[in-house]
Amino acid sequence: MDKDLLKKTVTELSGLIKDKEVSPVEVTQNLLNYIDQSNKDTNSYISVTADSAMARAKEAEQEITSGNYKGVFHGVPIALKDNIYFENEVTTMASKIHKDFVSKDDATVTARLRDAGAVFTGKLNMHEYAWGIDNDNPHFGAVHNPWNPEKVPGGSSGGSGAAVASHSTYSSLGTDTAGSIRIPSSACGIVGLKPTHGRVSKYGIFPLAWTLDHVGPMSKSVADAAAMLTAIAGFDGRDPTCANVPVNDYLSGLNGNVKGLKIGVNEEYFFKDVDGPVEKLIRDRIADLEKQGAIVTTVSIPSLRNAEWVELATSLSEASAIHHSDMQTRPDDFGADIRFLFELGELFTAVDYLQAQQARRQLKLEFTAALQEVDVLIAPTLPFISPNIGDDKVNINGKQVDFIENCIRFTGPSNLTGLPAMTVPAGVVGNMPVGLQIIGRAFDEARVLNVGLAVEEMKPLGDHQPMLAP
Question: pTM for this structure?
């Protein structure tokens, strides 16, 4: 097994494949060998599709050898979250109810990655129906954080976070309704990007809450996230929420230059009740950006005081509507944690839901106004260090507080507004990674990625790496 090859980023690996220094067959077989050894420790994969992966790798090798190189993802093996459909393959949603579900179509993102030449190695574990944070799945088992296998990897895209961090996939996609890309990316020390709502098609992805759902990259580097977004973004008429907005080459636009960049900091919400060591790391990285020529100013967004209620009223109502029929006929087939949430969602009235949408509109207006004054907002992704698997409380400045509530405090507002938001590693506290969140203007992913690159180039993780890395 070639450990150095496993640790390559997509953009590093693609250069080797393009120049024929390594072959897709060699890369894929090496990765499959590693998955066979490592998955017992992380439990990041629900299914491994070794035979089809090797067949596709051989096709990719023949295409490249004959001069038909398709780009960054050609011949690169990746795995996706198991709520993203594959044509004629089982997609379980990590559930009992859908354990044998087979889609007739690829999701749009799956099809676009196929067209880009990607090799799919399997489907990744997740919180059941993407409705949870700890990824302790009653049907497929808990995912373990590669930095410390006793710790929660974050969710709901915990399998994607753990697989990327442990190098058992070169990149992945997650879905994000209240933070499910950014939370596990932060907890697992990788890059996670939730694009603007409508930037990437959700066709062929099982919904959690229609108006809040997003799909986006979870990657080893900012460059990999940029390459992934370039591959999957763009209009799709099969998704009624998809926006017809031109797609940039996000990778070629990266330079890490933040001179003159205006950074907004919201003190009263995004820096309230943050564990001291986490807050220090985020403020240190902001100061580092200032040293590179960025301009930091405070911004006020008063409606953030309502954000947690608005997020819950919206997500619980929409999710409960989606699962209402199964809750009526087979409630015992749901995990206990999400069954409780679906029952809770049934309690909201139409008045509650519509009032939440009015408050949500005001929040969007205030974010838009703030982002006219600054280029990006920067905040912690999570206000604490990941707890142990099974814990429902976390420590913030010596106080034990609710895990789930404090997980989505800083990530949920970007789902309500639909604005792009990315987490990048900011450093390490107690041998666990900490994420810094960058929120940008609608469809301004290029700037968000560029700020992320500036932070990444500080090498905030130093020599620290996950315990379960090869």
Answer: 0.97
